[in-house]
Amino acid sequence: MGCGLTCVKYLLFIFNFIFWVAGGGVLAIGLWMRIDRATFDPLLGIDYYPIVCWTLIGVGGFVFLVGFLGCCGAVQESKCMLGFYFFLLIVVFVGEVGAGILAYYYHDEVRTWMDSHMERTIKNNYGFVPAVTAAVTTMQEQMKCCGGDRSYVDWMSSKYFTEGKAPANTSVPLSCCRDQTEAGCNRGQPGQPADISKIFTQGCIRSMELWVQEQVWILGGVGVGVGLLQLFGMVFACCLMKAVEDEYE
Q1: pLDDT-derived band of residue 185, with 50, 70 and 90 as boundaries?
Q2: Which residues, 6+ apart, have CB-to-CB distance to 171 below 8 Å?
């Protein structure tokens, strides 16, 4: 085997070692979320939580297997392993393209689910489930938003206010304030701020949409980069299979 193909062999091994580690990481996260359900369930919602867990476990396990086969095939110069690896890499590539198409096609449904879940979270869980309270607080502070799809009005029906758990004479959580150090910045009745100029008026669903739109080129670039790496992996696998075949003829 020539020097060039030896380089291809080691490049293929390095590529698949990274693939293998990444798959193991995703698998570990999925298993952790499944085991430590109490931490993540309140944030994701009971309906979708098992789907998220098993998707991460399935994808992570599959990528882990693909990376393992690629590493073994490269080291052992096994034509059978490399062929199976090539097939699985095509499956991953097609799956990613399909996932991208589905994400684009069903983005309205995803937004509807996010809106519904956010509304339930604000209404029933904020102020009662610590993990949810912390997550919503962080989101409103970092994304400079307030409430869900209807902005600060969503807090009008929140149990945090209707059941008297919120401080008296406040309209929204303190995290909705533009300047949290300003006394009375969230003064008013539930969902009815006395001075809306002192709070964020954009809903968090819209803020998330705008954030995704701003990051779309980065996300697209990452997707293209991953796709190109996989294509290179296919090419390297083909070259190595051809070299192995020629060597044993």
Answers
A1: very high
A2: 152, 155, 186, 187, 188, 189, 190, 191, 192, 193, 194, 199
